[in-house]
Amino acid sequence: MARIKKDGLIIVGGGLAGSLAALAMAKLRPEVPLLLIEEKDSFGGDHIWSFIDCALEKNERWLIDPLIAHRWPGYYVSFPGHNRKLKLDYSSISGQRLDGAVREALRPDQYRLGTRAAAVRENEVVLPGGEVIRADGAIDARGASALSLLTLGWHKFLGHEYEFARPHRVDQPVLIDATIEQVDGLHFAHILPLSDTRLLIADSYISDKPDLDTAALEQRIEAYVKLRGWKGGNLARRESGILPLARSDDVHAFWRGAAARVAKLGLRGGYFHPSTGHTLADAVRTAILLAQRPDFSGAALHDFFEADVAQLWKKREFYRSFNAMLFDAPNGERRNILERLYRLDAEVIARFHATRLTMVDRMRLSGVKAAKTER
Ligand SMILES: Cc1cc2nc3c(=O)[nH]c(=O)nc-3n(C[C@H](O)[C@H](O)[C@H](O)COP(=O)(O)OP(=O)(O)OC[C@H]3O[C@@H](n4cnc5c(N)ncnc54)[C@H](O)[C@@H]3O)c2cc1C
Description:
Order of helices and strands: EEHEEHEEEEHEEEEEEEEEHEHEHHHHHH
Number of helices: 11
Strand content: 25-35%
Helix content: 25-40%
Bound molecules: flavin-adenine dinucleotide
Strand order of the largest sheet: 7-6-15-16-17-14-18
Structural class: alpha/beta
């Protein structure tokens, strides 16, 4: 069995979290030997990741700003009894830009594309042919795993990106259009205007079940396009996701269950917004944290990120009780709860998405919960 010894760090998984971690290492710690391993032929994949700008700290912007493909000064939400335009900056990065940035920042000897890791251990990676690459430490960023160890709800969607012959006249993203028929939990459309003629339309659900009936969702997207009067759209791209929403507490069991003693980032490490399943803000933060570590041994990285994610989950306990309330509500009521959330001050909504709720915000959100029982 061939063994290659490298000092420094191996990151396995060149998706969102692994690529951002590699970019932060290249910028802040160029002296540390680095290897990024990705099984596909490009980094990031064919993805668009959106985020509310205030979810990032000012001193984190340098990592994400070069990757931004779209930026809007606000977005809409729409419920049966309440339409609103929120003036909260909203941006998207693309897999294409992430791929370009990683190839530019890393030397060719610092990454391997089209390479599948068979096993990731504390300080080594095993490739299918038996080759073992050793380093001071390895990080597993291969996406979701061991989610069955958590009690979860799901944010699931099918997205179609259409190129229309004529302008669609959507000037800003529609984060939630929940005016449509309610099926499978909370049902809403999510729309991103990518150009005057291009829209990403996602048929989305906050659901108890992690399954996607693709044929049914396709039909609902087509019905929505018709309802909105958009004609002659050519399907340019499709995407789908089934993202976890946290309801239980035991992140330690999850962390250990996903592979003992190996440091993990991204979904693999439990880094996701408990109520949206989004990971971008956490991925930026952990990438920079990684690059600031004094010790890249596998054991030190494992202990550091295990403690970090445990602290994060403790801080975000409120979201899990909010989710529990949402999931315990009967199907139709879920939309009413979210509608009440989106009637609050824009600053509270921003802090909800940025996981920076204050004590007063929590009290106001508890009011959103209490209103449920008054109805
Ligand atoms: C369609 C979609 C849209 C989303 N939109 C948003 C959004 O707008 N905003 C947001 O914040 N979040 C969004 N998410 C949620 C979340 O941010 C993404 O799932 C994100 O990609 C998770 O990052 P990650 O690095 O943990 O995993 P991934 O990005 O999935 O990266 C894992 C990488 O590991 C590679 N890999 C897997 N196994 C191996 C192996 N054995 N060897 C080598 N490489 C391997 C994979 O090919 C992949 O590139 C979206 C998710 C999906 C699916």
